[in-house]
Amino acid sequence: MIQNEAHLINLDRYPIHRDCPERDAVLLQVRADLARDGCAVLKGFLTAEAIRALTAEAESVADKGHRSFSRTNAYFTTDNASLPEDDPRRQFFDRSNAFIPADNFAPDGPLRRVHDFDGFDRFIQECLQEENFYRYADPLADVIVNMAEEGNGFPWHFDTNNFTVTLAIQNATGGGSFEYAPMIRQGGENFAEVAQVLNGTSDKVTVLELEPGDLQLFRGRYSLHRVAPLTGDRRRYVAIFSYVEEPGMVGAPERTQQLYGRTLPIHHERAGQRVDSYLD
């Protein structure tokens, strides 16, 4: 086990734990990237030692991942026959993926220790420049690992939570690029542009090739995105930290069941408590 949390994060390059000109410069660059298209990547955020530790931890709980195979639209809703056939809400795609729920990661494990590192939340909040900023209160989803194998992927979708922070841990042998259409749902559903992304005619799609140790900040509530199908026999692991605008927010029961294979009482107690009216 890594004894010193400072060995997890590349603090020479990203001194998130102290106020200094180097930290200010990182903030300026991240903010500029987020303002441009809702996505910023901090290359080499983790140390090589941390990458090894997080990979080992993910491997140790891989059997806890919930695998699901279904057909879904970008909003995780059921079909509505009253809409036109070419409406994006009626476009369904194969989804094959696995998530290792948050309650499988120990408080003293490397994943939680990165999340709880002194200054981590404050740094993320200052990057996003959000006054209302809270950790996702979902006990199954505040910090999870996405696990994908050959043939898996995640079709086009919008996130339920407003801010997603991810750490690339291990790439598959091939495939798995992160593709997104920046901010196309900001200010409205914009079904026409969503339809173009889904049918492959949009010129607004950006493709990212993330490497192990990269930290990504992404506004997935507003940007349609997907993970391209994987190839090869090596699993892809990506840690996901989630933040929202209101305290106490958790996932909807239907979507939680889809993603994690189970729900908890809190998901039903807080069903319908959202701060916006976007489709999920």
UniProtKB/TrEMBL annotation:
Q: Which UniProt keywords apply?
A: Iron, Metal-binding, Oxidoreductase
Family membership? Belongs to the iron/ascorbate-dependent oxidoreductase family.
Q: Which GO terms describe its molecular function?
A: metal ion binding; oxidoreductase activity
Full protein name: Fe2OG dioxygenase domain-containing protein
- Which Gene3D superfamilies does this chain map to? q2cbj1_9rhob like domain
The keyword Iron appears for this protein? yes
Q: Is the keyword Metal-binding in the record?
A: yes
Q: Which Pfam families does the UniProt record give?
A: HalD (PF23169)
Tell me the ranges covered by the Fe2OG dioxygenase domain, including all copies.
Answer: 123-245
